[in-house]
Structures are given as structure tokens and as C-alpha cells.
Amino acid sequence: MRPQTNPPDHPRRARWLDLVRLHLLPGIALLEHHPAAATEIWRVLSLYPIEERFALYGEVKDSLTRRNPELGVRKAEAERDCKSILRRLSTDNSKKLGKLLARTAYTNPAAVFAVVINQIQSYDNLIVPVVEASRYLSTLSYDVLAYSILDALSSDRPKTKDDGTSIAMWLSGLATFTGQLYRRWVQMQPSLWLVLQYLVNSLVSGESKDLVVLRELIARMTAIEPFADLSDAQVLSLAGGPHLRSEVYQQTDLAKASQRAVQDALVKARSRLRSALLDKGLAVPLLVNIALQRQACLRTPGAHLKSLGALFDQTHAVLFQFTELLAALASPAELAALVPEPSTLLGRFGLDAGVAFDLARPRLRARIRAQDDKEQGELQARKESLLAARLKKEKAERRAMDEAEAAAAAAGKGQGKGEGKDAEGDVEMGDSGDGEDKKVDVAAEVKKEGAEESGTPPPPSAAATNGAPAAAVNGESGSSTPAPAPAPVEVRLLLPLSFRSSSLSQRACLTRLLLVPRSQPWHSALVDEIRNVAEVLPASARDTLGAPFFVTFWQLTLHDILYPKERYDAEITRLRALQRDVASLAGVKQEDKAHFVESVIATATGLSTEAAAHLSSKNRVTRRLGREKAHWFTSPSSSPPPLLLSSPRPRAAH
User: Fold this and answer.
1) Is residue 640 part of a domain?
2) What is the DSSP letter of 177?
3) How many domains does the chain have?
4) What is the pTM of this model?
5) How much is the pLDDT for 6?
6) 355 with 291: CB under 8 angstroms?
7) Which of 20, 280, 411, 579 has the most CB atoms around it within 10 Å of its CB?
């Protein structure tokens, strides 16, 4: 029998499915503690998709048990044995009673786990013992346990307390149990994506209370938890890069030195969650639907104001937690390819500007970084080309002078080697031991021609405004704003000393070669997105703010405009102190101490590298804003009220 080699609609698969549903699954329920039968039936069931298996479990649990009295008797016996075990179960005897629980669940897992889930929903102190007792379950039992969790989540029980503002106790307990179970046991991995798919379907149907399950999954499997309150130091740390941000959620301390196994398990759990999210394509549906539910929950008809506020806070916290999760699980390139464009989120999904740009910011950041690297490479190649051409010319001139001097000396007309002037007397050649010319920095010559280090073009003058063509990209239709003057880019290049004595026209010519003009003041990586956003912006915002300012304002983060040097220094100092203190830690193996020291050194090195890159990035953004600021609010109809409503006020709330 090889059902996996047959197509889904093959008659043999349908016949075996009927055989399993009508005979095999009900048959093993009549057996008593028979692990071999459960193993063999799983070999058949594992050849079918998880959706068909869960449908079989539901049919055996409900309809077949009601129709067959013998199955009803075995179900009652299994429930009785399970309740007896749970009454005695605790953290101390979880291994001993876990074997009895697994033995009871071998042949009748659906009945056993229905009781387990019901007890967990009522008594949260059973969560940890039951999770530890699940170590001895069979593969079939793990599969049925996942079905039982989904069956309980989809029940018709009210998911809020009577006050309507708090999550019901049964749902909170079930969410905690789900998070701990999927973190603890790798055997639950095959069904993890189905739990996430259930959450997507729940959000699509307008049910946001199940997000507590996602919150617990992320918190237990990755240790990324939403914070109800942040200190000033934590807020500043969140303005840093990935290494500094990770210290907010998982601060490195001495306790981790003695918890190496726990940390390794956390890394493996994070990898399993990443696989379930990215491999099954559930990251973007979850991300977009959480954002949509964040907006929709405020428009719930008939809901109390306090209930709406609590629901909005919970949804916003989960959205922030999920975005941090994606940033931790995926590389910047993967995340940039994953998230949609801001214009798509604004136009197609109707998200608020703050949420849309928050979700799409990795794509914009990757695009800006790629463009900056490209321009930097082109600039470096241009500098090397100019330097090579200049040196080649100098060598040719020296060779010609040497030949002329040799010919003059042979004819008896030379005046000596130390005069140092050519035939035209333009440049005095000093006698340097290696025959090389002295070098000077051309930056000062470039600045003499009017180039600025920041590359900021001058604001448009009144004379240029009259009759000048419209700007290339300003996000406004029919705008008469003049095109900005090309912004020069300063290039520092070492040239021979003879460049100093060149004429003004020669220096101006070389300066024009070095200063690459810009066709527009906006960042070239954002030009297309400015155009796309201008099409979906309301006319009032487009005419007052303009799409360029709108995109720049929402695209930037605290990371772009703030360099938390004191936080980087404080964390690096703290990590260095940990390296000294771990040696005096008692009760920890030497290999665990060495592993901890290596991780601390790697984190400190990453923070140092990240701090330098952050400072460079912040300076680039500052220069960019200095270049663009003269071209914002070019429309005469700009006024303060729409400006406050469209940008600073909602961003402060966001």
C-alpha cells in the first residue's frame, strides 16, 4: 500500500480513508493500552494531509461514539482514568504520572485530551505539569492533542468575561498551555502552521480575541513580549539597531550562564516558529489582518468605550510584538521581499499611514541602503578613474621633460638637473627622493567652487520662480514649483601638487567632473514610492503637505534621527563587567561559562560595530533632510491644521 504515490482523487486513497474512519480508528479505541496498534495506525494516517486527519478525529470523537454504545463505554473509562491521573499530577511527579497519561491516551486519545483541555481551562496551575507529562506521548497522541486545542479554540464559549473588557479565563489558560506546549516539544511542529492558519481565519472573520494565542506563542517560543510600560533607557535602546533592541527583550545576564539548555531550546523553538510562518506563507496574512483588526476594533457597534480601549491596546501590542518577531526571524533582505509596498497598504487595504509605513518600512530601508551602496560604489570608481587619469598625465609630462633635459645635456645646452622647471616655466619641480609629486587634498579647491559638504541646494529664489519649470517629483498636480538646482556632492581626492598652480578654468573643469549633479532633491530610492503614494493620498493632503514630505515623515524612525551613544556605551560596559563576574559564579560548569563568555564577547563586538554603522546612517539621514527641507511645503495653500492632523499628531499617538 502506497497511498502517497497516488493522486489525491485516486479511488484507492478514498477506500483506505473509509477503512480507517469506519474500522481502524474505532477498533483501536476498543483495545486497552496497546501502543503497537497506535503506532501502526499512525503509519497509515501519516500518509494523509493533516486536514483529513483532523476531520477523522472529529468524526470518531462525536458521531461514531454516539452511534456505537461500546465506544461510549470505552470513552467513559478513558475519561475516568484521565481525571484520576490529573487529580494527582504535579510538577514533582510529572514524569511518573506522565507515563500513565500516555498509556491511557494510546488507544483513545480524543477522549483523554478533551478532559485534559477542559481541566487546563479551569485550573491554570495544571499547565506546567501537563506540558512536562506530555513527554511520553505517541506521535498519534501529539497529533490528536493539536486537534483538541483547535477544537477548544473554535468552541462557542464566550471569550471575554462578564465585564466585556478582559479575556476569559479559559481562553487565557488555553493560550498559555498552547505556547508552552509548542515551545517544549518538537513533535508538535507539524501542526503549528495549522494553529497560525486558524488565527488568520479568525481575524478575517472579525474575531480579534484569539490574538492572545498568538501573543503567547511568540512570547513562549521567542521570549519577545509586549511591554505595558517602558523606561526611558528602554525607549532609547529601541532607537538602536538589532543588537541593542534585543537587549531590551532578552537582556544578557549571569542567569543565562546556568541556563544553557534553556537558551538552546529557545533557539530551536524560534527556528520552528520561523519555519511555520515563512514556509507556509502566513507571515504577511497575519501581519495585514492584525493591522486591519486594529482599525476595525474601534468601530465595533454597541461596545463600551472602556472595552474598545482595552481591545485596541491589546491588538496594538500584538501588532508591535509581531513586527518585532519578523525582524528577529528574517534577514533584512528576506523581510524587504516579504512586506508589501506602502502604497499597496494605503490604497488596497486602507490602512492608516502610520501602520502602513511601519509595516512596509523594511522594504523602504533596504531600497535606500541598496541605492546608497550603489552610489557609493560609483563614486569610488569615479574617484579612482580621475586619479588614474591624472597620474597618467603627470607621468607622461615627466617623461617628456626628462627626454628634453637629456637631449639638452647631450648637446651641451643644459643648465643642470636641479632647476626644476619645464620648458614653459609653469610648474617648479622639487627634488623628492622617490621622484613622486607631493599630494594635496582637493576638497578645499572643491569648496572654493561653491560645493557644500551636505550637498544642500540653495532655496529657490524669486527670480528663478518666475517662469521656471515645475519640479520633477513633488507629488502635486499642476504645481509651479521651480526645479531645484542640482546638489553637488563633495569628493575628496588626492592630486599632485601641480594642481595648485593650474589655472582657474582648469580647476573649475575638474570640480565640475567631481561634483555630480542631482536631478531632484529627494532620495532616488524613494522617487517611485513618492509617485505611487501621491496617487492614493487625498487631494487635501497632497495639496498641503505634498507626497515627498508625507513619505519622508512616515518613512523615518527614531533610529534614523537619533544616535543613542550613551545606551551603546552603557551596554558595552555592562557586558564587559559580565565577562569578569562570570568567573566567580558558583555551581556552573566551566564549559557553560566559556560558552557564556563567547556569547557576551560576540554581543559586545556586535554592539560596537552596530554603533559605528548607526552613527554613519544617522549622519546620512541628516544630510538628506538638509537637502530636502528647502523643497517641502511649496504649495501656498499649506496651513497648520491639516499638517497637524495628517502627520505629527497621529504619529505621536502611534
Assistant:
1) yes
2) H
3) 1
4) 0.77
5) 63
6) yes
7) 20
